[in-house]
Design goal:
Number of helices: 11
Number of strands: 14
Shape: globular
Strand content: 5-15%
Structural class: alpha/beta
Bound molecules: pyridoxal-5'-phosphate
Order of helices and strands: HHEHEHEEHEEEEEHEEHHEEHHEH
Helix content: 25-40%
Strand order of the largest sheet: 1-9-8-5-4-2-3
Radius of gyration: 21 Å
Length: 368
């Protein structure tokens, strides 16, 4: 018996005919670059996010990069973000030549500690990037309020949060712009790389549309030096076929998450916390354990895959040594990095499989 962290094959098998039909349509029309598939999916994704504009980008990382570029972020600028995220959040800042400035996390939600943001704002600060980690929305109203006070932009990293709600509103157009990833394992995944920028700002939308397509105004007239960062039409067609199932998939994730919480209560491990204003989409179900390595090994021996998101906070990454941070700078992020464990959660996961995960984990916890 094997229980993976995600099961992309099971999802494809279930919707094979719809997805194959979308792929065939693109090939038959040979409209591989932008065109109607990308346009339609952009419109559908904008409505899904309850936002005015959506612009298809080649990946989540490129979406973050271009959103920052549209705000004219450059080498003089500092961008505030959390230390406890996937490295792409900070890489997008570095790609602009700007400096990522890290902040510790709220240990309950794993999201940026809003109370620490103000203390790192300088005259160079240009924007804040909150990350909706594991599909749990960050406290956007408080972050946007700080930003407005200091005339900063806010770009949401929504790569793990397709469909999540903050105070009833979909993440995506609550701040200045939001960036999504369609990396295959995300809640809405492509069959390769893909991303999206969602915004209510006509100005940002216009700028990223030009930037993603070689700065083009017309076929051979280029307004600015841009990038080859378009969402692929095949991926757009596949994503369009899958989008109508996203709410159901997220609902299944929610059911699995509440069942984990029910079954793992009182077993001496820290379970996920949900803020009262959050409707999360459970990209990951993350617990905190002592003896993580041993627990992970025992689960693996029983065929159960787990993940660690993330074992090294960004301020301690070799790649960011030049920023000058050291161990102890962000103790909450460092502690989380040492004891978080992601359990298998995906819409196709059966109750039987979940029972096995819970039983094996319970036995291990009992023994250690
Ligand atoms: C996946 C992810 C990204 C990057 O997305 P790609 O599509 O893989 O480039 C950025 N930020 C976070 C938080 C992510 O999880």
């Amino acid at each position: 018996m094997k229980i993976p962290l995600v099961d992309l094959k099971a999802q494809y098998d279930e919707y094979k005919s719809e997805i194959d039909e979308a792929i065939r349509r693109v090939i038959n029309n040979t409209a591989f670059i932008l065109g109607p598939e990308v346009g339609t999916f952009e419109d559908d994704f904008a409505s899904y996010c309850e936002a005015k504009f959506a612009i298809g980008i080649s990946s989540g990382t490129d979406a973050l990069h271009l959103a920052l570029k549209a705000l004219e972020v450059g080498p003089e600028d500092e961008i505030i973000t959390t230390s406890f995220t996937f490295i792409a959040t900070a890489e997008a800042v570095s790609m602009c030549g700007a400096r990522p400035v890290f902040v510790d996390i709220d240990p309950q939600t794993y999201n940026i500690d809003v109370d620490q943001v103000e203390s790192v704002i300088t005259s160079r600060t240009k924007a804040i990037i909150p990350v909706h980690l594991y599909g749990q929305p960050a406290d956007l109203d408080s972050i946007v309020a700080i930003a407005r006070n200091h005339q900063l932009y806010v770009i949401e990293d929504a790569a793990q949060a397709h469909g999540a709600r903050y105070k009833g509103k979909r993440v995506g157009a609550i701040a200045d712009a939001a960036c999504f990833s369609f990396y295959p394992g995300k809640n809405l995944g492509a069959f390769g790389d893909g991303g999206m920028i969602v915004t209510d700002s006509k100005e940002i939308s216009g700028k990223v549309r030009i930037l993603r397509d070689h700065g083009r105004l017309d076929k051979y007239e280029h307004l600015v030096v841009g990038f080859g960062n378009r969402l692929d039409a095949l991926q757009a067609a596949i994503l369009g076929a899958k989008l109508c199932h996203l709410d159901n998939w997220n609902l299944r994730r929610r059911e699995i998450a509440s069942r984990y919480t029910e079954l793992l209560k009182g077993k001496g491990i820290v379970l996920p916390f949900v803020s009262e204003w959050a409707e999360p989409v459970w990209h990951q179900y993350v617990v905190r354990v002592k003896n993580r390595q041993l627990i992970q090994e025992r689960l693996k021996q029983n065929g159960i895959s787990t993940g660690i998101h993330y074992p090294i906070p960004l301020h301690l990454q070799p790649a960011y040594r030049s920023l000058g941070y050291s161990k102890g700078d962000f103790p909450k992020a460092e502690e989380a990095a040492e004891n978080v464990l992601s359990l298998p959660i995906y819409p196709e996961m059966t109750e039987d499989h979940q029972n096995i995960v819970v039983d094996v984990l319970s036995n291990v916890l009992h023994g250690v």
